[in-house]
Amino acid sequence: MENTKRISIDIGGTNTVFGLVDGNGTIVERCAIKTQDYRTMAQYIGAIEENIVRFKTTCGNGGVLGIGIGAPGGNFYKGCIEAKAVNLPVKECIPLKQILERDLHLPVTVDNDANAAAYGEMVFGGAAGMRDIIMITLGTGVGSGIVIDGKLLHGYSGLAGELGHSTVFPGGRTCHCGRKGCLEAYASADGICNNFKELLEHQGKPLSPAQAETLTCKQIGELAASGDPTAAAAYDKAAYALGIALANAVNLSSPQAIFIAGGPARVGDILMKPLRKHFSEHLLFLYHGSVTLQQSALPDNDAALLGAAALCQCKK
Amino acid sequence: MENTKRISIDIGGTNTVFGLVDGNGTIVERCAIKTQDYRTMAQYIGAIEENIVRFKTTCGNGGVLGIGIGAPGGNFYKGCIEAKAVNLPVKECIPLKQILERDLHLPVTVDNDANAAAYGEMVFGGAAGMRDIIMITLGTGVGSGIVIDGKLLHGYSGLAGELGHSTVFPGGRTCHCGRKGCLEAYASADGICNNFKELLEHQGKPLSPAQAETLTCKQIGELAASGDPTAAAAYDKAAYALGIALANAVNLSSPQAIFIAGGPARVGDILMKPLRKHFSEHLLFLYHGSVTLQQSALPDNDAALLGAAALCQCKK
């Protein structure tokens, strides 16, 4: 199987990226199209199929294991993606699995991007040989993928794994979802920016509207790396919220390891050191020693393609 | 299989109860011994075996499907029970599965009491036909059992399902476990008593030490039923903590239903009405309509025996 290749597709709001991935997790070929460049859904799907057919030709007959597709709003049970979630110009669920399997005669697996990342960690990353993990993807939001006994957890609704919307501070900061005190409101890139702004306000040194407007999480990470205590405290607040939510998640599923991925995690110990502290302090004694907390071993730039490729091996 | 009987054993700190249970969940025979009456472990296990042999004889050859054992500290992976958890006079883990299978030639399944209750709900209760549920058992503590795709969730450590120790109010009331703000500190029988005492103190009407000493959760339930607003508020506080913890648990595992069992839940709507409200308010919009919240359908007095009996059908 190591020599059989997987075709992986990472659908985002800006780009739709294609990869041809071998069994060792090497991306041997890649290309991309602009998700927004197509006026009709048929044209968009046509462009997807064209790229797949090209990869398939490269591999020769019988050389492709399958197609894995990761997207925000990807639904494993239905095999479709929610067009809204990637700003596609239609409203309905796009039945990509059904269409591509019919047209291309290859097995297709669709899932959301965080689930794909979790399975990517299992197949190509730091979770090789493990059966029970939790994957956290920090970015615009806080995504999560849960693997139980070697299988991705989808639950009754198909939408299991939304740890970003766990209430961590009841009555706290308002989240994108409209509720209050969600993990995402503190530990996403936006959340870390808001932690930083709030801390500066408490210190009587609020940012100007122009500064506040252009502030990025990356800048806060750079400030923290250069020794700025307020920037470090903004990360500590994110780590506190995430530490509590993860210790609570361990109470439920008792994983062997938790992996942290995504832009805001690139700062390494600036996040991971306080995160380990807060996690450990909120972890029930029963689980001490049975669970590790670590950064994702997938290379950041390839994580989405490797995750989608891993889905080809996903057990139903 | 319906006519094949299960032998179920519910081991508690006071009594060890035996049941002979048919495939419809009728307990056709039962008896009990005092858990503390035995000076040595060998004597205690001897008494257990004596009762099993008697049930086995009642059923004739081939008439017993297996033995299911539920106990606080029951460990599914190891097949043993933690003697400490039921106040048995030894310190080690008692390998009940190994001993009983060797001596009695019947398959034995051991698990903790909350997991047994969850599986009991699946086999004999309100979750028949479901694949994904969460069971909450309210009592001295707050226990939980999680069923994923028809199987009990044990996780990497074997100790998955400790929702009672989820941090709901960071920095809040101290829990039995030594940490702060756990669900159990607000929603167990003790927690509800403490909610009530705290509310009375805030009203400037603290209980006398003698009253505080003898206060029970059952009394608070009776007061609430008779219209006492402070008693109702003590239950509302428990429901608020439980509603948050359960909405967070849905984010992780997306069950079809959540069942609530145990003494403090016997008050019915006094708990369930505010619980549904707080749960719904903290539930991510994605899950609205996909999960129900209800009282356990197992008869309270038989729940532990039926749960242990159900373990005989537990998929590995």
Can you describe this structure?
The structure is a homodimer of 316-residue chains. Chain A has 316 residues and is an alpha/beta fold. Helices cover 38% and strands 20% of the residues of chain A. The first copy, chain A, has 10 helices and 13 strands. The two termini of chain A are 19 Å apart. Chains A and B meet through strand 10 and helix 8 of A and strand 10 and helix 8 of B.
Short description:
The structure is a homodimer of 316-residue chains. With 316 residues, chain A is an alpha/beta fold.
Rg over CA atoms of chain A: 20 Å
What characterizes the major β-sheet of chain A? Answer: 5 strands, mixed
Residues in β-strands, percent of chain A: 15-25%
What does the average pLDDT of chain A come to? 94
Biggest β-sheet: strands ordered side by side in the sheet of chain A:
3-2-1-4-8
The arrangement of helices and strands of chain A along the chain is EEEHEEEEHEHEEEHHHHHEHEH
- Spans of chain A of at least 5 consecutive residues whose pLDDT stays below 50 are none
Number of helices of chain A: 10
Secondary structure: number of strands of chain A: 13
Give the oligomeric state of the chains in this entry, treating copies of one chain as homo and distinct chains as hetero: homodimer
Q: Give the helix proportion of chain A (percent range).
A: 25-40%
N/C terminus separation of chain A: 19 Å
Shape of chain A: globular
Main interface pair?
A-B, 49 and 48 residues
> Which structural class do the helices and strands of chain A define?
alpha/beta
